[in-house]
Amino acid sequence: MKKNMICMVLVFIFMFSIVYAQETRPWYQDAPWPRIKPNPQLKIMPLIKVQGNKFVDPQGNTVLFRGIAISDPDKVEHQGHWNKAHFEKVKEMGANVVRIPVHPVAWRERTPDNYLKLLDEAVSWCTDLGMYVMIDWHTIGNLHTEVFQDPMYITSQAETYQFWRTISRHFAGHNTVAFYELFNEPTTYRGQLGPIAWSEWKKIVETMITIIRAHDQETIPLVSGFDWAYDLTPLREEPIAAENIGYVTHPYPFKRSEPWPPKWEEAFGFAASQWPVVATEFGDDAHPGVAAADPAHYGNQIIGYLEGKGISWVIWVFDPEWGGAKIKNWNYELTPGGEFFKKAMQGKLEVQNKK
Predict the structure, then answer these.
(1) Closest Cα to residue 204, out of 244, 279, 145?
(2) How far is CA 200 from CA 203, 207, 238, 248, 263, in A?
(3) Structural domains in the chain, sorted by start
(4) In the 8-state DSSP scheme, what is residue 236?
């Protein structure tokens, strides 16, 4: 009897030690990837693909995206406005795509696991509302030198690669997440952030795409050019060596002096004849002394130019506190710019100045 008791105690100690060891795993031991639970929303939205220089649906129909960026989900949640109603207001604007900017500082401070919970909610709400999602790694600076414009944008190549590894694995197969905007605005800030050659940027971008493709073959990476994501002229000589991608421009009016259209054509419009291009950020609609209905108004010129070239577009920003705000307050009253671009999203501009 005594011998049996000793054996039982030893077995108990052994089993306890296994459980304890699992619960107190040393920090240097890698944990397994969590299992992804089946998601009934994965295939509700039609899958978007690249065909030539267009985005198309499964029937081959061209899809022109018109949308707006929200502010960082971490900010919206902290301020108490993170809910489906927020996205319903975006839908009322006429958007068929929502750009979601993820700042490196928020990604780290909230932790990736907790941030993914916000993104999951956004993707679920957008699926219900019939809007696609564009996830944007929202940093500004030189990823080659790893020097950035402001503290909230500070990241590294390693963190950027890991971000896209995490995101692409998490959202692989979810048709609602149509785009991964790899890096918001590459810039040297007129030399302040150090040099970077296009060949160096090309290599970094192709590394991101390789990491994404290891998990996700379908979501479309969007690649930004230099000059705060305005200039795509290097594509004439060295396009990115990857399929099923698009390119990004941010055609704010202050980027070049008037007349704008020939300069837009030189900087990014030419690319739209060969690849899909998305203007993922712009929206300064004011033009002093020019009425919104006038063809010379910046808003009419840029929307007319983009849509005339078949370029999809996303304006900045659905937040009352950030520069370029399209709402006045959290009651969702629209600014004049918000009213203007709402009409544009709904195809109701009084003046269409298409190229």
Answers:
(1) 145
(2) 5, 11, 11, 18, 26
(3) 47-345 (3.20.20.80)
(4) G
Run of H or E residues at 14: helix 2-23
Q: Whole-prediction pTM value?
A: 0.90
Token pair of 234 as six digits: 């290097």
**Which has the closest alpha carbon to 306: 256, 343, 264, 255?**
264
Distances from the Cα of 7 to the Cαs of 11, 19, 210, 327, in angstroms? 6, 19, 54, 71
Per DSSP, 116 falls in state H
Tell me which residue has tokens 């004849």: 273
Given pLDDT bands bounded at 50, 70 and 90, which one contains residue 286?
Answer: low
Q: Using one digit for the tens of pLDDT, what is the confidence trace for 318-349?
A: 999 999 999 999 999 999 999 999 999 999 98
In DSSP notation, 269-334 reads GGGGGTS-EEE-S------TT--TTSTTSHHHHHHHHHHHTT-EEEEEEE-SSSTT-SBSSTT-PB
Evaluate the omega torsion of the peptide bond into residue 317 and state whether it is cis, within 30 degrees of 0. yes
Are 146 and 157 in contact by the 8 Å Cβ rule? The answer is yes
Helix pair angle (336-345, 298-308), 10° resolution: 20
DSSP state of 96: S
Would you state the structure tokens that stand for residue 185, as one six-digit string? 């605005």
